[in-house]
Amino acid sequence: MNQPALGPVVVIGAGLLGASVGAALTDFGERVQLRDRIVSHARVAATLGAGSLAPIPEGEVNLVVVAVPPTALASVVAEALLEYPSAVVTDVGSVKGTVLRQLEEHFGDVNLARYVGCHPMAGSHLSGPVTARPDLFVDRTWAITPHRATAERAMETVRRLGEACGGRVVILDPDDHDAAVARVSHLPHLMSVLMADHLLDVPAEHLGLAGQGVRDVTRIAGSDPVLWEQIITTNARALRPELEGVRARLEQVIDALDNPSSDRVRSVLEGARAGTRRIPGKHGTPLVDYAHVVVEIPDTPGALAKLFADISRAGVNIEDVSIEHDPVRRVGSLSVAVDPARKDELDHLMRDAGWFVA
Amino acid sequence: MNQPALGPVVVIGAGLLGASVGAALTDFGERVQLRDRIVSHARVAATLGAGSLAPIPEGEVNLVVVAVPPTALASVVAEALLEYPSAVVTDVGSVKGTVLRQLEEHFGDVNLARYVGCHPMAGSHLSGPVTARPDLFVDRTWAITPHRATAERAMETVRRLGEACGGRVVILDPDDHDAAVARVSHLPHLMSVLMADHLLDVPAEHLGLAGQGVRDVTRIAGSDPVLWEQIITTNARALRPELEGVRARLEQVIDALDNPSSDRVRSVLEGARAGTRRIPGKHGTPLVDYAHVVVEIPDTPGALAKLFADISRAGVNIEDVSIEHDPVRRVGSLSVAVDPARKDELDHLMRDAGWFVA
Predict the structure, then answer these.
(1) CA B186 → CA A84, B13, B357, distances in Å?
(2) Between residues 108 and 167 of chain A, which touch chain B (CB distance below 8 Å)?
(3) Torsion-angle region of B202 (φ positive above 0: left; ψ -120 to 50: alpha; else: beta)
């Protein structure tokens, strides 16, 4: 075992993220000390299994994880580097380049070799230690953002932290990270917020018609406004061009409403559907190209219900279905999208069951 | 049984909504004829149990349900009123006032007494008859939008249609309906679309950091662009002021990013959280005011995990948890929100189990 030590670990800030890191590391067998400005938070986290309030002597601490709100990050990281002069220090904040610049500009006397930031891409619209879970980070992206002065030991220790918590480690430049989260996290958050804020002016009887769509769009707008104000203002530099891009497109949509012959609305809707398909599947896997089993549409009631039952009994998932129409023969066929690995088998099974397969 | 007859019914347009209406009415015991410009669609719907392609003689038809795309609604409704001169005619389109105006302006010779529009608030990001389900409308709002000329028989027949499909019938003025869906359905759709369209310009490696938030916000943007272009342009009149309101608030947020001392971002975030809480719970029930069981935070590892297990074993749902801090006594307590009807019982149970309950 040539692996460098991971713990003992001090976690500063016992909210959802800090307490979850503490719980994951405790489960991993590491000794964890929990600190929080509000002692009740640390105590709740401790009684939920995220570590102990008992101080670890400064010289024994190998890693300090700073999990405080965004506006406090730089100063708490700087203090931790001074207070634990031999420990690696990281933070789990959601903005990285701005915090690094604050450290460089306002704490120029602190050597940043032992510091490297990270960002576990897990969270919840809940907050506080009560909602902490040791498996919060399992299979989630765990971004690490080394800077020029980061020492190899710091990098390796924080990489082991991410792996111990079950995350999928990704290395990114700090400013590149901030641009990425502005686009895939902070902008979506603000779009959700603008929609939800607008609901304040909607009469109650109109809200009675709300369906699943508006609930999905506004779900994350229910998150902690104090935390999100800090995230958004801390990442304002990366966020502004994204918001300006959306504003320009919104202008075009409003103008297009006055001009029915414009194809602007259609092109935005088509772009949007293509945009949703660019989001990678779970665990970062690309979307699959399905194979198609094409069956002639029979003419008897209940026949297609039986077809779907036959496919499902074969243990094959139906990923998509479309209807193809032959205007000459006046018959139609059904194209069933399935896992390419199962297509040939399914073609045979369907023929054996009496279906007319193209 | 003094109830007026509901069927026989002709459904024109065998997409998701039309085929689901047909399937619900077939299950309800009514005779249903399916018609679609694309005969394969009607045939697929029929073989899935949504009715039959066999024509019902015009004089026997009691109700015609028009379920065609928004831009075709007015003309198909007018044709149906002429083709079935003794039937009640309804449509299930998602825009009502505009369609009524089109009928009044372009089909002035058609008597609209037998027509009343409705809007079952159910749908899917899927489309086409293959995804149709007889239970699509169960417990969903089914808006009916009578106009000045609507006859009592038309109103009662369409009310029975909504009830036969399992919907919760709500009566609305047509223009009021359009304002409501602009606010709670079409605007959320466009916000989702603007976000998803923006993803086209995001580098693939940045999309790798996408979490659940952006997936939720953009889910409905994956819907059929052809259908939604029609919905949006048909309801442009009601939608424009909503979009302009969002644009104004977006301007304020962009300006506030340059001005860290502004409390604009915070106030929008707080407004948004309040906005999400205005959306009624499932089935239109108001949000509950919970009762709070307050327990002193113990000092032993695993204690709170046991507390939550004790509460759940008592069969009580934990709706929310917050930490209250007493800076003088330096102890904290946990406030657990539960169903008010269970509070006293739970207080006793917790005391009996050895917890210090306030």
Answers:
(1) 55, 22, 48
(2) 121-123, 128-131, 140-141, 143
(3) beta
Helices and strands in chain B: count of H runs, count of E runs: 14, 10
Nearest CA in chain A to B52: A301
**Is the separation of the CB atoms in B48 and B133 below 8 Å?**
no
Q: Is the minimum CB–CB distance between B69 and chain A shorter than 8 Å?
A: no
Query: With contacts defined as CB-CB under 8 Å, which chain A residues touch B333?
Result: 40
Which candidate in A229, A262, A270 is best for mutational testing of the B interface (most B CBs within 10 A)?
Answer: A229
Task: Select the residue of B121, B243, B280 nearest A250 (Cβ to Cβ).
Answer: B243
Q: List the single residue in B with minimal CA-CA distance to A285.
A: B208
Q: In sequence order, which residues have a C-beta less than 8 Å from that of residue B358 and are 6 or more positions away? A: B294, B295, B296, B333
Residue pLDDT tens, chain A, 358 long? 456 679 899 999 999 999 999 999 999 999 999 999 988 889 999 999 999 999 999 999 999 999 999 989 999 999 999 999 999 999 999 999 999 999 999 888 889 999 999 999 886 656 677 878 899 999 889 999 999 999 999 999 999 999 999 999 999 999 999 999 999 999 999 999 999 999 999 999 999 888 889 999 999 998 889 889 999 999 999 999 999 999 999 999 999 998 877 788 999 999 999 999 898 864 444 455 788 888 887 777 777 888 888 887 778 877 777 777 665 555 678 888 888 888 888 888 888 888 888 7
The whole-angstrom distance between A136's CA and the closest CA on chain B is 13
Residues from chain B that touch A171, judged by Cβ atoms under 8 A, are: none
Which residues pair with residue A336 across a beta bridge?
Answer: A293, A321
B278 φ, ψ (degrees, to nearest 5): -80, -15
Each residue of B240-265: b (16+ CB within 10 Å) or e? eebbebbbebbeebbebbeeeeeeeb
Write phi, then psi, for A323 (nearest 5 degrees): -105, 130
Residues A59 and A34 sit within 8 Å (Cβ to Cβ): no
Q: What whole-number distance in Å separates Cα of residue B124 and Cα of residue A217?
A: 15
Comparing CA positions, the residue from B63, B68, B6, B78 lying closest to residue B37 is B68
Can you list the domains of chain B with their CATH numbers?
9-172 (3.40.50.720), 178-278 (1.10.3660.10), 291-352 (3.30.70.260)
Are residues A217 and B301, on separate chains, in Cβ contact within 8 Å?
A: no
Interface with chain A: mutation pick from B94, B144, B197, highest number of A CBs within 10 Å: B197
> How big is the CA angle at B123 (ends B120 and B124), to the nearest 5 degrees?
175
CB contact under 8 A, B332 and A223: no
Q: Looking at the partner chain, which of A189, A198, A331 has a beta carbon nearest the beta carbon of B213?
A: A189
Which residues on chain B are in Cβ contact (under 8 Å) with A253? 190, 194, 243
CB contact under 8 A, A268 and B208: no
- Angle, CA of A265, A202 and B269, to the nearest 5°: 85
- Residue A352 buriedness (CB in 10 A; 0-12 / 13-18 / 19+): exposed
Task: Identify the CA nearest to B12 among candidates B86, B90, B82, B87.
Answer: B90
* Cβ–Cβ below 8 Å for A130 and B304: yes
Query: What is the 8-class DSSP label of residue A31?
Result: -
- In this structure, what token pair is assigned to residue A48? 């939920």
